[in-house]
Amino acid sequence: MAKNVQDRRGGWRRAKIVGLLAAAATVGTLVSASPAFASTGTTTVCSKGNYGSQLVFVDRGGFATFVVSPGHCSSVHFGKYSSERVNVYGYKSGAKVFLGYAFINDWKTSTFNTYGSIPGSPYFKLSVS
Description:
Blueprint: H1 2-38, E1 42-47, E2 52-57, E3 63-64, E4 73-77, E5 84-92, E6 95-104, E7 110-115, E8 123-128
Parallel strand pairs: 1-7
Antiparallel strand pairs: 1-4, 2-3, 2-5, 5-6, 7-8
């Protein structure tokens, strides 16, 4: 009878140890994944003019943000290229206006602010941190 009790205790200890090791491995995976995500940059577009704004990532096959309404912002997270071209567009009453382009580093935080009016003189400024 004593042998059965020892086997059960040993079995429970083994189960606890295996459970703790599995939990530690999971936490280690989550911790190691967090810095990789944290190091990726954020690209933001803010529409500060009287028109909607959109970013198109040329090196990503034309992937684009949604058209951001005036007075709003939208962000995406990347981390693949050290430098890529981003085209900036403005939209107003069915018209699409090319505002220009800039090269960004995906590992940094880039913010495109669009200003002005369509029709008129729409433009953007890029800030990087």
